[in-house]
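Fold this complex.
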Amino acid sequence: MLVVASLLVYGSLYLTPGGPLSFLVGNRSASPEVIASITAQYHLDDPFVVRYFAWMSDVLHGDLGRSLVYREAVTDLIASRLLTTFLLVSYATALIIVVGVGAGVVSAIRGGWAGRLVSTGSILFLATPAFVLGVVLILVFANGLGWFPVFGPGEGVIGRLWHLTLPAIALAMASAAYLARITRSAMVGELGREHVETAVSRGISQRSIIRRHVLRNASIPIVTVIGLTIGGLVAASVVVENVFALDGLGSLLVRAILQRDFAVVQAVVLLLVIVFVVVNLIVDLLYTVLDPRISLGGDS
Amino acid sequence: MTAVAEAGAPTGRNVASRALTVLGVGGTVALVILVVMLLSAVLAPWLAPYDPNYPDLMASLQGPSAAHPLGTDALGRDLLSRLMFGGRTTLLGPLLVIVVSTFVGCCLAFTASWRGGLTDAVISRLIEVLFSIPSIVFALVAVAVLGVGLLPVVAGLIIAYTPYVARVMRGAALRERRLPYISAVWIQGRSGISITARQLVPNLRPLIVAQAVSALGFAVVDVAAVSFLGLGVQPPTPDWGLMVKSGLDSALRGQPTEVIVASLAIVLFVGAVTVVGDRLGRGVTGR
Amino acid sequence: MTLRLLSIHTLTITVPATEPKGPRRTVVDRVDLHVERGESLGLVGESGSGKSMTARAVLGLFAPGVEATGRIEFDGVDVLAMRQPELQRVRASRIAMVFQDPRAHINPVRSVGDFMTEGMRDSGVSRVEAGRRAIALLAEVGIDDGERRLAQFPHELSGGLLQRVMIAAALAMQPDLLLADEPTTALDVTTQSEVMTILAEVRRERGLAMLFITHDLELAAATCDRTAVMYAGRIMEVQRSTSLQQAPLHPYTSGLLVSRPDIDLVQRRLQVIPGRSVAAFEAPSGCAFEPRCSYAQADCRAGEPELVLLGSAEVRCGRVDELRGTLPHAVGGPDA
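Structure:
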């Protein structure tokens, strides 16, 4: 499946009107030497299949090509920005799980006003795109109250985390809201099941029941959503990085698109896809642990 | 399984009461909000008080006033007018995405579920692959290939959303196909296309609509986000995503009106769409 | 007189109204029942008669919105008045319940061993000891490879096996009373008799009392010491099972007995009780069974008959004295 995805990514270059060559040259001056080097780098004289395999083998050897704009190896470009993106996504993931599952569980158990609060709150946050939330956070907390720095990734571990707090919140809230709703409905669904009645009839404490029967059984849909969310988080971070002027993969991608630096675009997009696939693979593996009815390689 | 029945001529009262039963009070209010916003976008050329692109540097960065109910932006352009015109790209673009992706997705899903076998396998693989790529990426790649602007973004998102629709509808179609009434019509000798059009679609319509409405919210967010990045709609064309961006600059200079107005518009629309989509979805599952 | 193990007095259970401002609906109407130590009472009724709710009420198991009044005295203490901690103690070690559909009532993602030992571990028994006891319990219900079974998951076991597991688990904390809510309804007939045999053995060995809920009058009368018949949320008849089968005192009981086809007799049409059963809140004033009763008279509509004591039996029928001894218990008639 990865193969097909990479094929698509690679192939889309050739969809440009006017042919890939003119696209790659773009607005730059087109001296014969430049054209020749581009042609050589992208194997534009060879048939498509050959080109594709050449690219793939380069990738597998760790060579993602050279950036036309920066004149560096793409691999280096990515590596230097990986840390910021990684920290941001991890930070946001932690927030999503803690806030999302927490709010969902609380609202499912308490019901009443807590349930309604979480319901309305989650619709509100679901409707707020990450970039809007980011902007609001900047204006209120950074600019207005001065609690957090406005732009930049910061230095040192603590400094970085400090700088990344607002971006992480902006990135996390919409997904947290979605997760809260899913968690809540999954838990409410489980609370009504017969095996819960059995546990109650045995005098088991409410807390134990929630933990061992309700939450455990509800975890399957919850984990699914967490997996899908994380998989898409790296891509979503593109926007947030732009808002907060962070030098992660996102800003690299955006600039590469604007400047038609296609090797970079291809590499970053490929990376995004790989992350998504890997995360979902992990989720699939988790299923087999969580639900003994599911066996590896089969559908439940 | 009953097909959706027509409850007589759609008079005003009829429609209203149908809406209230299906959507509930909250849902109906949300629907009204949606309709108002969409109408003002469509009718902007006639409803807007000012030309959205007309700069009036004397009146720049003003708050709400009698002359400009929502204030002005950094170039002195009336925000209310820009908001209304902005709806055209921010709302109508995603609408196009949803309409096309729903149509294509349904076609793919019905073909796959009806034909089964190799066709189904191929289409399902395709869906899975496309699924593994986040929607923003499609939009970005489309922009990379076709250049900046609204159309590339729309094109990219159409490709991104089609697999979602196809997946849901394929599952639903497969379930529906097993029901006896389909076999009954099949035995009568009707063709696959006829059955799909006349039986399957009307019965799955509530699901299709609920699904599409929910997806509309995501599409709006995606389009606005790409515009915010500067890769979608280009200035000076008004667009809510762009307005949030320029509004940020204005706010940092002390005038928060633009960013507040644009942000609220987005949140309000997506929120209303989510509520309506929710209620419709509930109607489908019958909870 | 020794204290009865279970004594239900005037139990009335209501559920929320269908309309927002409407009256609550009664599903169990002033029920009186008792179970002595070590005896088994069968509670028979059609769906909607309120029998399941009555059983659940003994454990204080109420769905949201359900309310109950009356007294349920277990070993002298009113269950309905208990606070949560005390109720949990009773549920954990004094009364146990076996449910109808074991697949739905056992958590599918946890192992059989986990299900069996949960109650014990919650009470402080060590994991190892609990496992040991679980294996012994499984052996008691006829499952010999207990160790292997403990590691398995519910979906790997057949329905009959799973129900035995449920019974074994119910015995884990040595309860005094077993509530069985249609334990064999979801099983095929052969498995049904196996499970019933196990229940009888287990009860005998432990001197366990049982309240057995079922819609199958024949099953209840064949396996329980006494049988109670419920209709429209009310008790219609309670008798020793042997005499109930020979000489029913209530037209409804008679109707149920007569509608069983006889394997030796050729019947052109099966006997049925005309009409359909109703819940308490749908019942007419006067005798609830009157609309369907072949012995009904004008007086039967006038007022609801009282529960009358006849020796050790109880009957709720206005014409009990006249009809006594004349009601058929089989297709052939009262003397068949």
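Residues 70 and 251 of chain A are 14 Å apart (CA to CA).
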